[in-house]
Amino acid sequence: MAGYILSILGIVVAGIFIDIIVPDGSINKYVKSIYSIFVVAVILTPLVKFLAKKDVYTLQYEDYQVNVKLMAYIQNQQVKQMENKIKTQLESEGFKNLDIKINFSTSSDELTLISCEINLKNLSIDADKQHINKYEFITGVVKENTNLVDEVILFYE
Asked: Given pLDDT bands bounded at 50, 70 and 90, which one contains residue 155?
């Protein structure tokens, strides 16, 4: 960029000298015409260089393939968020010390939930929730957050 600015300054200085040195008359028109061609050439030089680069903005599909490890990490984080959301919701309803594990698979970059395992071994239920069927209630919360069917929501004690 600095070279381009210096070129423009040089051509301006050359124009001043040409104006001073060349006498008025018929030759002055021709000299100024040639000078104008040089000015246009200097101004258009960066544009010509830019257009000469053919592959400046060519994108290749191979350059932007999905990083498999990154996708696996993102999907794992999605499942952990689901597990935490279910656990938090159940804790707010009075069901504490649950261990929740959602099993999933990834095929063609899509997350597929397989099952949900709920360990009730350390479960403690608030006194006001003792009369509620814990299996139905927990199943409802899991289904609400995962869209899994009853058959794949598994309980362990």
From this structure: very high
